[in-house]
Amino acid sequence: MLEVFGIGDRVQMRKKHACGANEWEITRTGADIRIKCVNCGRSVMLDRLDFMRAAKKRTFIASEAKQVEPQSSNSAETALE
Ligand SMILES: [Zn+2]
Question: How far is the CA of 68 from the centre of ligand 1 (A)?
Fold first, then answer.
């Protein structure tokens, strides 16, 4: 069961897609979750609970990928104003 996820994350589902791939990108979150197969581009909408049950794990976490820039703002530098 996958409990934490966000738009842009990629997930693996318990069952692979009919096209043979098993990697999906989350394109919409809310009461319903929309995921898109990264291989064939097919979109599927699931309600949140179904999605959480069907997802196995995240393979890519968009929110972490955005933090590649070091956020060491408590180093000697102050603001860049
Ligand atoms: Zn597919």
Answer: 29
